[in-house]
Design brief:
The protein has 283 residues and is of the alpha+beta class. The chain is built from eight helices and eleven strands. Helix 1 packs antiparallel against helix 8 and helix 2 (58-68) packs across helix 5 (128-142). The N and C termini lie close together (12 Å).
Length: 283
């Protein structure tokens, strides 16, 4: 009994000291939402209702609309000149006139934020890109994302806007799709264009999917000058499914740092609760 009391005192001191130093997480992202995905309780928020450009976070909605349409995932789609980015002039390794299965384009869109892949997915939707954008906005409304608006499927337009609160709903909904869970967390992938011998290797744009300290179910990054660096995830932290939305992070690595700060903060809170439970049982 004496040893148990001593152990409790040591743990209590360490946990309180760590928590006192950390307090609430000092996050650099402009807008943040951290949500318990089990009960939709807000764990932490900051500027969560600000309407902002969301860059390639858009591609999670693109993926849901494609999957909802139940189109053949093996159908070959040829990259067209219409899929080339004329807005930001971003580059792509998916050359025009090369063909890929729809599921390959979906994977590249989610894991590596391939803009031509997302554009081709929207273009080949029944009714074309305009019908696809309509379906995106309809899906957003169905999910209760009332401060969200899409104009195209890639996120290259700064007119694709949302809030951290709305995006938490989108991330939680995307977790219900096995394909999104798998493709968005694929660490690396190789594709071979149809009728060509060269292979193209892609890596996930979120380095945390390769970090063994993280258990990530859904992941998507985004970047535009107007949006800053963005990151959304659903991950298991301290035994709970947690949605994390980080928008407009300044600096190349800040969104990763903020995600790690959220994780550490929540784990410290969990330790405090465990110690409180021990104390109650001891008494």
């Amino acid at each position: 009994m004496k040893q148990r009391i001593i152990l409790f005192c040591v743990l209590f001191f360490c946990a309180n000291n760590a928590f006192a130093q950390q307090g609430l997480p000092n996050l650099k992202s402009h807008a943040v939402m951290v949500l318990n995905a089990q009960n939709d309780n807000v764990i932490y928020d900051k500027n969560a209702n600000n309407i902002m450009p969301i860059a390639s976070i858009t591609k999670l909605m693109t993926a849901m609309v494609i999957l909802d349409a139940q189109l053949s995932q093996d159908e070959k789609i040829t990259i067209a000149t219409a899929d080339v980015d004329r807005l930001k002039n971003t580059r792509s390794r998916l050359h025009t006139e090369t063909s890929y299965a729809r599921h390959e384009l979906l994977r590249l869109s989610l894991m590596s934020s391939e803009n031509r892949a997302a554009a081709a997915l929207g273009r080949t939707y029944p009714g074309g890109t305009s019908a696809f954008v309509t379906a995106m906005n309809r899906k957003a409304f169905e999910l209760g994302m009332y401060n969200t608006y899409f104009v195209e499927p890639t996120g290259l337009s700064s007119s694709n806007v949302s809030t951290a609160r709305d995006l938490a709903k989108m991330v939680a909904a995307s977790n219900d799709y096995d394909v999104i869970r798998e493709f968005s967390t694929t660490s690396q992938h190789v594709v071979s264009p149809q009728n060509r011998t060269n292979k193209i290797q892609y890596v996930n744009s979120n380095s945390l999917v390769r970090n063994q300290n993280w258990q990530i179910d859904v992941s998507k990054t985004g970047y535009l000058n107007a949006a800053g660096r963005c990151l959304v995830m659903q991950a298991n932290i301290a035994g709970k499914p947690v949605v994390i939305v980080l928008l407009n992070s300044w600096g190349k690595n800040t969104r990763i740092g903020d995600a790690n700060r959220v994780k550490k903060w929540m784990e410290n809170v969990y330790v405090r609760k465990q110690i409180s439970a021990i104390a109650s049982n001891t008494n």
